[in-house]
Amino acid sequence: MLTTGPAKKVSVYVMEGHTYHGTATYAAILDYLFFRGISDATVVRGVAGFGTDHKLHTSRILDLADEMPIKIEFIESAERVEEVLPKLTEIAKKGFIEVQDTTVIRPQPHDKSKPAPPPAKLQSHAKMMRILIGESDKWEEKPLYEALVQALRANDIAGVTVYRGILGYGANRRIHKDSTLSVSHDAPILLTVIESEEKLRAFIPVLDQMVKQGLVVLSDVDVIKYSHAEPLPEKHDEVRK
After folding, report:
1. Average pLDDT, integer, range 14-33
2. From CA 65, how far away is CA 137, in angstroms rounded?
3. Cα(221)–Cα(175) distance, rounded to whole angstroms?
4. Burial of 131 by CB count in 10 Å (0-12 exposed, 13-18 middle, 19+ buried)?
5. Which helix (H) or strand (E) is 34 found in, with range?
């Protein structure tokens, strides 16, 4: 079994129509590698190519459909490659073989016998912005809530969540509700954003242009985030949802 460290990558190129003792050459190579205990090998079929004869081969030409390029590739230690190379050269005598130096990196599997590290706990202060509008509100012929989401994203706001209310009323004291029996499309919409105060206040002029009737509320929040990733540097001022 391959371990982390130096190794050799071997690529064998043959044509699909080539045979070795009555068997397709690529199949004969794959069988040989398998029974010699090579770790793993992959066979890929080309869709187009040409060889030393400068003859174009492509799967779009029906009469050349069995003459497509085939590549067999495997990675092994230098010692094992030296063992199998002579036979590979014999089998692939109508093709060619490429050998390259490479490095194998095997990620270490998690040791289940060891307890998982506790999640990192990130705490900070931020602002929550709530934007209350109606579902029928528009901005440049598109739903206002969709336009606001796009504007928030364009202004590098960390994230936004849109909620569709089932019942509510606004400054005009008119009831807005979501009902399968009603054709009304003016249910209350709430957008919630958590970000740094600096970014949210910088976004308020955009809201002034887009929201003609609604309510915007800013409030202080304490953000607590649990993550198994590495903690962010303390100077990082973004607050992710």
Report:
1. 91
2. 59
3. 30
4. buried
5. helix 25-35
What global pTM score does this model have?
0.45
Q: How far is CA 193 from CA 78, 156, 219, 237, in A?
A: 57, 12, 11, 15
Query: Encoding tokens for residue 171?
Result: 């400054």
CA distances from 240 to 125, 133, 157 (A): 12, 24, 9
The torsion defined by the Cα of 20, 26, 32 and 38, in degrees rounded to 10, comes to 160
* Structural domains in the chain plus CATH codes: 5-104 (3.30.70.120), 120-227 (3.30.70.120)
Radius of gyration of the chain (CA): 32
Residues 157-189 pLDDT 10s = 988 999 988 766 655 556 555 554 444 456 889
Residue type at 11 in one-letter notation: S
Cα–Cα distances (Å) from 29 to 7, 26, 35, 71, 138, in that order, read 20, 5, 10, 11, 65
Percent of the chain with pLDDT over 90: 41
Average pLDDT, integer, range 129-156: 92
